[in-house]
Amino acid sequence: MRTIRIEASTGYDVVIGEGLRAGSGERIAALGGNARTAMIVSDDTVYGLYGGPVRESIERAGLVARSFVFEHGERNKNLAAYGKLLEAMAEERMTRDDLVVALGGGVTGDLAGFAAATYRRGIRFVQIPTTLLAAVDSSVGGKTGVDLPNGKNQAGCFWQPSLVLIDPETLRTLPDGEYRAGCAEVIKYGMIGSEELFRAVSETPVRERFAPVIDACVRMKRDLVEADEFDRGERMKLNFGHTFGHAAEFLSGYRLPHGFAVAAGMAAVTRAAVPYGYCGEETLEALLECLERYGLPAAIPYGADAMREAVLSDKKASGGAVRLVVPERIGSVRIVTAGTEELPAWLARGGVGTKDLSHLPDCKGV
Ligand code: NAD
Ligand code: GLY
């Protein structure tokens, strides 16, 4: 069992341990604070796999367990699902002392967290991430929200969880594509801050060492969140690959999974960073090799004009400029501000609209 304390505007523990889900109720009840009801929010796939044991555990701990189950997929991280969830909480007459339990991947955590943040001006929520992506990234740090028709995560707020319970056993049921999508975020952590982690995951598959890899990523995220909770500086490094990645995800109508889009975005921005002189060719080669090892895409399957429009409508563009996270070497990145007029050159140098897409990995079943 590993426990990592996050000291953000509110402090909380991230606990990592095999089989943790069976005792989740006890840990949730131990948060205290007069909670009576816990609303489990989960998608249909995850609830079918893990809803029962978590619900039983919550009831054994003396809380009333209720559930809100929605259809899986990014396309349901939207205002309609958010509205229905708030209504379900109100129908249960949940009070400000009650809790939301997000059981699932990043879609569930973002949606449930946003509902918790806004229901009666904010109630506590617990994250039980069941994807690798959510374990290493989205369950920690308090970014919550839903997508709008215009783009990703456009409605949301910062609202820290009260507890994060990561049970690596749940990752064993992930479809292969979802596992690989999570590996893209792990590779991201290596690229932005730890050559040691990058080399380790380049040599040994992440699935052979889930707990230590998750531990390393959460500690890096802790440091960035504690330094810059509200994403004005250092924390933006976590957006490596996201400026182009979010745009690609949006253009795919959310058929391209988030992790795959981030992988393609990391490759594109690193490809551009070489001719701009931010990093050397060897950094790009190491990244591409690692992405290939995990069957992740290294090219963006959309044209330059569409990408330009999508990047500009994403919230990472502001005030006539776009912020790009650019590698200097493996384990180190810097934040570069590019004028929107420079964006076409970045996209062209990143190979967007020109790269051969014949090696785009299959993301069916993801
Ligand atoms: P997801 O929640 O849609 O989960 C992916 C799929 O895996 C779903 O179909 C789900 O049903 C299935 N699944 C989940 N756990 C499973 C398990 N244990 N066994 C079998 N199937 C399982 O997507 P995701 O990749 O976890 O998260 C992506 C989302 O996270 C995006 O919306 C992205 O914007 C968001 N995100 C948020 C942050 C943040 O800081 N808040 C950070 C990164 C990503
Ligand atoms: N995943 C980006 C962040 O938490 O800041």
Q: Explain this structure to me?
A:
Strand 11 (321-329) and strand 12 (332-339) form a beta hairpin. This protein has two domains: 2-171, 3-Layer(aba) Sandwich (Rossmann fold); 176-349, Dehydroquinate synthase-like, alpha domain (Up-down Bundle). The protein contains 13 helices and twelve strands. Helix 6 packs antiparallel against helix 7 and helix 6 (176-193) packs parallel to helix 10 (258-276). The relative contact order is 0.11. It is α/β, with parallel strands linked by helices and 366 residues long. It has helices at 24-29, 44-60, 79-91, 106-118, 132-138, 176-193, 195-203, 210-227, 242-251, 258-276, 281-293, 304-313, 343-349; strands at 2-7, 11-16, 37-43, 64-70, 99-104, 124-129, 143-148, 151-158, 163-166, 317-318, 321-329, 332-339. Strands 1-2-9-6-5-3-4 form a seven-stranded mixed beta sheet, with helices on both faces. Mean pLDDT is 94; it is low at 356-360 and 362-366. It binds nicotinamide-adenine-dinucleotide and glycine (GLY). Nicotinamide-adenine-dinucleotide is lined by residues 43, 45-46, 49, 72-74, 77, 104-108, 110, 130-131, 133-134, 137-138, 141, 143, 152-153, 170-171, 173-174, 178, 181, 258-259.
Can you tell me the CATH superfamily of the largest domain?
Answer: Dehydroquinate synthase-like - alpha domain
Unreliable parts: 356-360, 362-366
Strand content: 15-25%
H/I helix tally: 13
> Main sheet?
7 strands, mixed
* Cα Rg: 20 Å
Summarize the entry for a quick read:
With 366 residues, the protein is an alpha/beta fold.
